[in-house]
Amino acid sequence: MRMTANGLLGSRGCMFTFHRVAASTDWDALPNRDFYIDLGFLDRLLCHLARTGWEVVTIEEVLRRAARADADARYVNFSVDDGYRDTFEEVVPLFRRHGVPITLFITTGIPDATLPMWWAGLEDTIIRKDSVIVEDETIEVGTPDAKRKAYLRIAKAWDGSDAPDRYAAFCTHNGINANTVHSKHAISWDMLDDLRLDPLVEIGAHGVTHDRISSLQPHAALSELEGSRKRLLKMLGIDARHFAFPYGRSGDCGPRDFEFAHLAGFSSAATTRKGLIRRGQDAYSLPRNTLNGAHRNLTMIELHLSGLTGVAAKTLGRV
Length: 319
Ligand SMILES: [Zn+2]
Fold this sequence. Notes:
The chain is an alpha/beta fold. It has helices at 24-27, 39-51, 59-66, 85-98, 118-128, 144-158, 163-174, 178-185, 189-195, 218-236, 255-263, 298-306, 308-316, and strands at residues 12-18, 20-22, 36-38, 55-56, 74-82, 102-106, 131-134, 137-140, 201-205, 242-244, 268-270, 289-290. Strand 5, helix 4 (85-98) and strand 6 (102-106) form a beta-alpha-beta unit. The longest helix has 19 residues, at 218-236. Mean pLDDT is 92; it is low at 1-7.
């Protein structure tokens, strides 16, 4: 492992991404807790970064800095993906309190309510009920442990193209109004309209349907990219300059898709490949380090900031 000229020291940027936040007191009881970051931890992390000389910047600024040769610039970007109500109610207010920017990557099918958020609806139902009916089976979910196990088991079974149909049947069997649950968890166009002129909020696109771009035929892949950009322009009047690939790992987006992001008019595209931003970074395959429920102390963060998680991922072939 060589860490010399272009190694651990020198100008570097680190991009983090996450999905949802939850209060520390609620986090333990969430069936899908790994999908959330503890809000108290995120608060402490922003304090820690300010204390240790890491500046929080927009992706626009990440691109500017990656093109410069500052000797020891250290900067981070945070992006929150998909578009959940807690992004509007909790995440943006937290970043505002710290006076630092946050990037929102919006899947436009979420505020349009054309993308069934089965993962959020399933979790919401399991939290509220003591038993749920899945296909012909009744599953007891009376304790936090049972809720967690049931969520993981059902979500794993559903994770495929028929998940929306399975979720629709689940809503019928359990007396759930899918529209009500959607509004409870989704960010809306009104909320986004409230944020669009905020200098601390940068809004980018994250597809229309959240489909894995690499799995789509060329015209469908390009229309996911262009479609989300056009929808943000129509609904918010903003020219979204940045895109984040749904899922974002190596198998989810490749060189063809990076080129499509360029063709669709974006100035950058982000993945979830681990690693740091160095001078000369390709703008269409930006690495981002995913924060999830397992990140509740600063040790893992320090590993990301040092670049060691990216090095380890490459070494282990997990990119
Ligand atoms: Zn996503």
